[in-house]
């Protein structure tokens, strides 16, 4: 796979697939610009070489064509601020307007085209659509790791219309793969993985992969209650995947067989209604009363998790410990984030696995105290599960 530093973009027009799927508020203002900032080194390298840039991205899941909410026009002002130059905008990705704007680009100039998902052909991986996109430039750069697990036209198909020497991985794509590989192939021990979030079904494949690699596997979030039931506990109205209880029991047994310390919460912060201002009690994780639900790990679990994390040398975290969007149930997630920051300060390598984990680390103020925050929750999970990412395979000519 050709990397950015192996390519001189002087006089070249680069079609750069980025992941600018950033959240907007009701007034269409960006609320988290992480994905924009992470792509900046790639854009600046191309411009510094004397190349020009055509930016392609998706945003949201538009239904039936263009709409204001999902238009990349909303990003132009922020991009101009980021790059310190004018960013031209074209609403027609594969029509005459986009083609003309791209053809007229001069070295050092940037063109942003509108949401590729305004076209149904994008998500279908349509080859004809991909070929039209390829006409926008002379070299293809994929820096959209967050969409690399999608077999879409702009992420996995259009690369075939460029010669191998003109298919290039951007800095973000390269960095994401390098950091994931570091955790997968050469972790320093003790290696601790922390899996949270709502469902075991979302994490089953990565949990099974990690059981061959980690020393400690910490389970938190809603999925922990299915494990509690597998151990014979009562969880009240807490989240339960009833059809995954046997699976949870088998994972507990597999961990024992492989010598992995599977660490489950022993207590929970429980409430009688799903609200931040509700009454809150502490209960054992397997003895939650009927009518009550666990929404965060409890104080004993927090301390136990943090102690393990602090003495770890490699840490992978994917998924919050509770409903961190509510301040009263964000304490467990904050405890984990703080412990990861402390371990990192003591020399550990910490990889935060995108999605809600990335949001939590940013929201809680620990973003600059961990080793790496992935921009691709789903893509990172699939890569670590051992699956081939179509966007990566395309760059490698597969």
TrEMBL record:
Subcellular location: Cytoplasm
Pathway: Carbohydrate degradation; glycolysis; pyruvate from D-glyceraldehyde 3-phosphate: step 2/5
GO molecular function, one term: kinase activity
Leading EC class: transferase
Primary location: cytoplasm
Enzyme nomenclature, EC number: 2.7.2.3
Keywords: ATP-binding, Cytoplasm, Glycolysis, Kinase, Nucleotide-binding, Transferase
List of residues binding ATP: 203, 294, 325, 354-357
Residues reported in the UniProt entry to bind substrate: 19-21, 35, 58-61, 117, 150
Catalytic activity line of the entry: (2R)-3-phosphoglycerate + ATP = (2R)-3-phospho-glyceroyl phosphate + ADP
Family annotation (Pfam families): PGK
Subunit structure of this chain's protein: Monomer.
Protein family: Belongs to the phosphoglycerate kinase family.
Protein name: Phosphoglycerate kinase
Organism: Hymenobacter cellulosivorans
Taxonomic lineage of the native organism: Bacteria, Pseudomonadati, Bacteroidota, Cytophagia, Cytophagales
Gene assigned in the entry: pgk
